[in-house]
Design brief:
GO terms for molecular function: transmembrane transporter activity. The complex comprises the extracytoplasmic solute receptor protein and the two transmembrane proteins. With 159 residues, this protein is an all-alpha fold. The protein has 6 helices and no strands. α2 (41-63) packs parallel to α6 (131-152) and α4 packs antiparallel against α6 (131-152).
């Protein structure tokens, strides 16, 4: 029996982000209903938490081999070319995620140096941006784990 690989830290982070989004959205709705005005911080935090949720969820999907892909060509190829295709897929993913990590890190560092503040609450902008390179790096790790498992036969081609 093959066990489903897990990305526990990313799963917890995504769950926490979703719970916080739900709570601040509910709080905003209740506040708007009672007072007629809304809470100022909800949109800024919700957008930030949606980005965290998206990247953390994508890392979980990568580890669990749950991303959508067309497997027709993979299934049609013999073992050696199939492994080459899996490595090619890994290389393409690493290139894209590597660029996100590099430029996201560069942007976070610039925001830190410039001491930029967020428009809504006036918090340091890098607090929000630093999660982009961190979570894209986590996705790189999870994609590498998934590729290793697919090449060794520990992870089925179709979930």
């Amino acid at each position: 029996m093959k066990l489903t690989p897990d990305a526990r830290p990313e799963r917890w982070l995504a769950s926490l982000a979703l719970v916080i989004i739900a709570l601040i959205s509910l709080g905003n709705v209740v506040t708007r209903y009672i007072t007629g005005g809304s809470l100022a911080f909800t949109e800024e935090f919700s957008v930030f938490l949606l980005v965290v949720l998206t990247f953390a969820g994508a890392a979980v999907a990568l580890r669990r081999n749950g991303h959508i892909r067309v497997g027709l060509l993979e299934r049609a190829l013999p073992s050696a070319p199939r492994k080459a295709l899996i490595l090619f897929q890994w290389g393409c993913g690493m290139a894209v995620l590597g660029l996100i990590t590099w430029f996201g890190g560069k942007l976070a560092w610039q925001e830190y140096q410039w001491e930029s503040l967020s428009p809504g609450l006036g918090l340091p902008q890098w607090w929000y941006i630093v999660w982009l390179p961190l979570l894209s790096a986590a996705m790189m790790i999870r994609q590498t784990q998934q590729t290793r498992d697919r090449l060794s036969g520990r992870l089925a081609d179709e979930p």
